[in-house]
């Protein structure tokens, strides 16, 4: 897991300006993601623009078709304002790790909590214990639906590949990830596969999009071709290097790519679908 989401840094409002973006932005409203057909779930197309902001005061002025924001800290009113502007909204949640700073932290039985995942206040969950975890995750997903989100980004979906403190297997992870997808779908929400690159071939059919961190840095971006071939967006972020160094790879692979700071505040640089950044 190479997650860079740090919602625990929300210690107060920050003044953030959209003018921090120095790369060209796709024009509005041409880049807005269309609504799904009646009765269908939203499925973002490859190369759609996006903004990922998990800390600081939400900046609604970014000209991106999709906003991925913290599910707990974003209000129903903020989601409604983004939707009124034509933006699609993704509800960020941790589904594979416990976070001691969340309002429902005390609802998780202690025996479900494993080793720390490298982030302050977070511990891996025993995803084999679906009977205990399912109602907890369902309640969180209900929150996302009630706030008006279009989709969910479930984080920490690759505990089996990490030192979780539990003997998790690849089969355990597939079962749990599919449960998470089902919980989202049962509520009419789309859902994205976060990282977990090794299981993309088995899971591409269960998720409407993917979210990746640092595939260019680790030379892994081609592994998302099954999502692109299926007409599903891959929302991608890099933290290291210069935009012009990795953006051509992103363009070739048809990813929706951003340069972000590791605290995931409003600052962004957008790698456009074509041309030089």
TrEMBL record:
It comes from the Bacteria. Keywords: Signal. Residues 49-267 form the Glycoside-hydrolase family GH114 TIM-barrel domain. InterPro entries: Aldolase_TIM, GH, GH114_TIM-barrel. Residues 1-23 form the signal peptide. PANTHER family: ALPHA-1,4 POLYGALACTOSAMINIDASE, PUTATIVE (AFU_ORTHOLOGUE AFUA_3G07890)-RELATED, ALPHA-GALACTOSIDASE. This is Endo alpha-1,4 polygalactosaminidase. It comes from Streptomyces cirratus. The lineage of its organism: Bacteria, Bacillati, Actinomycetota, Actinomycetes, Kitasatosporales.
């Amino acid at each position: 897991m190479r997650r860079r989401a740090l919602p625990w840094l929300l210690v107060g409002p920050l003044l953030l300006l959209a003018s921090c973006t120095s790369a060209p932005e796709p024009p509005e409203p041409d880049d807005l993601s269309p609504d799904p057909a009646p009765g269908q779930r939203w499925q973002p197309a490859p190369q759609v623009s996006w903004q990922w902001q998990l800390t600081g005061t939400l900046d609604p002025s970014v000209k991106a078709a999709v906003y991925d924001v913290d599910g707990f800290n974003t209000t129903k009113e903020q989601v409604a304002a983004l939707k009124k502007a034509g933006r699609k909204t993704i509800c960020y949640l941790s589904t594979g790790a416990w976070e001691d700073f969340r309002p429902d932290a005390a609802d998780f039985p202690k025996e479900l909590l494993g080793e720390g995942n490298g982030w302050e206040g977070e511990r891996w969950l025993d995803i084999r214990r679906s009977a205990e975890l399912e109602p907890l995750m369902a309640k969180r997903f209900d929150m996302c639906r009630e706030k008006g989100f279009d989709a969910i980004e479930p984080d920490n979906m690759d505990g089996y590949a990490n030192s979780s403190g539990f003997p998790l297997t690849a089969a355990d992870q597939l079962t749990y990830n599919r449960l998470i997808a089902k919980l989202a779908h049962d509520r009419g929400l789309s859902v994205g596969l976060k990282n977990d690159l090794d299981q993309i071939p088995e899971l591409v059919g269960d998720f409407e999009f993917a979210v990746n961190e640092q595939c260019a840095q680790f030379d892994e971006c081609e592994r998302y071709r099954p999502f692109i071939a299926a007409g599903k967006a891959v929302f991608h972020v890099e933290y290291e290097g210069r935009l012009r160094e990795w953006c051509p790879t992103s363009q070739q692979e048809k990813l929706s790519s951003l340069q972000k700071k590791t605290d995931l505040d409003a600052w962004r640089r957008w790698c456009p679908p074509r041309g030089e950044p």
